[in-house]
Amino acid sequence: MQYQFQAWNMHIPGKYRDLVFGIGAEEMGHVEMLAVMIAQLLEKSPLGITEDAVQSDPTVAAVIGGTDVQQGIVAGAGARPVDSMGNPWMGSFITSSGNLLADFQANANAEMQGRLQVARLYHMTDDHGVRDLLAFLLVRDTMHQNQWLAAAAELQAEGVEELPVPSNFPIEKEDRDVSYRYINFSDGAAAAEGSWASGPTPDGKGEFSYVAEPQSGVPMPPPTHADARFYGTTEIPNTVEKIAGRAQDAMNMEWLLSAVGHRLGSSMRRISAQARSPSSASASGVPPRRMTAPPPAGHSEGRTSR
Questions:
Q1: Which tens digit of pLDDT belongs to each residue from 186-245?
Q2: Where are the domains of the chain?
Q3: Strand pairing class (181-183; 207-211)
Q4: What residues contact residue 104 under an 8 Å CB cut-off, 6+ apart?
Q5: Hey, is 82 helix, strand or coil?
Q6: CB 3.0-4.6 Å disulfide test: which of 65, 190, 253, 295 passes with 305?
Q7: What is residue 284's predicted lDDT score, i.e. its pLDDT?
Q8: Mean pLDDT throughout 117-127?
Q9: How high is the pLDDT of residue 273?
């Protein structure tokens, strides 16, 4: 489906569109081959099994016998559009960006992952027929890996696309100071030995440099204050949030709580900081703010007011 959507959405006619349509059609044929193979393998699969140990539970018997229960219950001994864990196929895996260099690289990766998994499957069966089919799929994945990589290289050689993707984004809008800087976030130093840490870059537009450890970052920004009607927990008193939320509803003032929240949040943080370090306030000549109400008139200083 990835190849089909790429072809349907392609903005350029000619050989690249034909290539994507062609491989996409072949891959649909591969799905058909696999579905027929699964149906053939399930053709004589029993609903039960004669072993005494599992005969009392047909579901367990089917699983032990190598049958996906849903292939029997839902598909009537046939293939289903699911992965090996029974999860339905979803469109979320499809990459169809409209940028051919990005898509062809994604396609090459998909073929690599597919060939890797088929190679593992090959060693999980001793059925000659299944192995014959997997051997065919392996060799076609070999071809498709090379096709996508060749197409990506040809796009660049013809100047249709180039690295970095997207190549037509104005490069002066980037922060060019760090475009090719390898910043080592590991506790090891071996990565400095790689070609990605020094020498010319693959896009031909710069030279790699290596920084042994990241520089100190910027201070952590203050916490955000979402709309009170999301009911998140903040340092703002609940009563204030309730009042602000009601005011927003009554006056349709969506900005109100955000403004109130930021102001109150700043004030609460300042008061909290002063309470935690009274010495700093005294050193500045400003007495520390009291966090409790003063005792009522007539009470001694040593007694606590309620």
A1: 999 999 999 999 999 999 999 999 999 988 888 888 888 887 778 888 887 888 777 877
A2: 2-157, 171-211, 231-283
A3: parallel
A4: 148, 149, 151, 152, 155
A5: strand
A6: 295
A7: 47
A8: 92
A9: 65
The domain 2-157 having CATH identifier 3.40.50.150: the answer here is: no
Provide DSSP, 202-221. TTSS-EEEEESSPPP-PPPP
Identify which of 24, 49, 52, 40 has the alpha carbon closest to the alpha carbon of residue 78.
40
Amino acid type, 23: I
Strands 199-200, 207-211: pairing kind: antiparallel
Q: Which residue has the tokens 């994945």?
A: 141
- Residue 126 and residue 115 in contact, taking contact as beta carbons nearer than 8 Å: no
Share of the chain above pLDDT 70, in %: 72
* 285 Rama class: left (phi>0) / alpha (psi -120 to 50) / beta: left
Rounded Cα gap, residues 158 and 111, in angstroms: 24
Query: Per DSSP, which regions of the chain are E strands?
Result: 181-183, 199-200, 207-211
**Phi, psi torsion values for 243, nearest 5 degrees:** -65, -45
- C-alpha pair distances (Å), 175 with each of 130, 172, 218, 227: 53, 8, 17, 34
For a pLDDT cut of 90, what percent of the chain falls above it? 47
Taking alpha carbons only, the member of 212, 153, 205 closest to residue 180 is 205
- pLDDT tens per residue, range 73-86: 677 777 787 877 77
Q: What sign has the CA pseudo-torsion 171, 173, 177, 180?
A: negative
Q: Note the pLDDT of residue 249.
A: 77
Residues 6 or more apart from 163 whose CB is under 8 A from it? Answer: 101, 156, 202, 203
